[in-house]
């Protein structure tokens, strides 16, 4: 185990985080997890229109759970059903990768009513403040059931 007690060792705060630092931290954790046989399969699903990116979702599967990351649809296409299609495609890909449930989080200022419409159930919430107003971070889950 390493000890931090010499003058050449120091903590450093980086803001913004350089991409090479974020990559090094992520790669280090992924290497540790793989050595412990904890796999994380990351993927993205995108929606393209006229050759350009019009929406997408990032996700990963680990511990037989689909973790949904960022869901984005171009402003001009919101409320068109593309978000639902992206969610359904991510869920299907998660099932294909042996996920038995999906988890996603959002803020009370973003889409807290969206996920329950897709069958997600709230399982956690923490309250905080942003810009002087209260904001909650909310976690949702959806269990996948085998087709009968």
From TrEMBL:
Q: What are the residue boundaries of the N-acetyltransferase domain, all occurrences included?
A: 1-145
Report the GO molecular function annotations: acyltransferase activity, transferring groups other than amino-acyl groups
Keyword hit for Metal-binding: no
* CDD domains, alphabetized: NAT_SF
Query: Residue span of the signal peptide, if any?
Result: none
Q: Where are the transmembrane segments?
A: 53-74
> Sorted alphabetically, which keywords does the UniProt record give?
Membrane, Transferase, Transmembrane, Transmembrane helix
Presence of keyword Ribosomal protein: no
| SUPFAM superfamilies per record | Acyl-CoA N-acyltransferases (Nat) (SSF55729)
Stored InterPro entries: Acyl_CoA_acyltransferase, GNAT_dom
Question: Mind telling me what this protein is named?
Answer: GNAT family N-acetyltransferase
């Amino acid at each position: 185990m390493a000890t931090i007690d010499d003058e050449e060792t120091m903590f450093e705060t980086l803001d913004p985080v350089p991409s090479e630092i974020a990559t090094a931290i992520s790669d280090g954790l992924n290497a540790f997890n793989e050595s412990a046989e904890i796999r994380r399969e990351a993927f993205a699903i995108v929606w393209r229109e006229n050759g350009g990116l019009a929406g997408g979702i990032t996700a990963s599967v680990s511990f037989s759970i689909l973790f949904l990351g960022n869901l984005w649809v171009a402003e001009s296409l919101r409320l068109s059903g593309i978000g639902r299609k992206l969610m359904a495609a991510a869920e299907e890909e998660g099932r294909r990768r042996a996920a038995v449930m999906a988890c996603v989080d959002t803020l009370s200022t973003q889409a807290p009513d969206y996920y329950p419409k897709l069958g997600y159930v709230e399982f956690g919430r923490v309250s905080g403040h942003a810009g002087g107003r209260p904001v909650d971070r909310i976690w949702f889950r959806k269990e996948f059931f085998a087709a009968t």
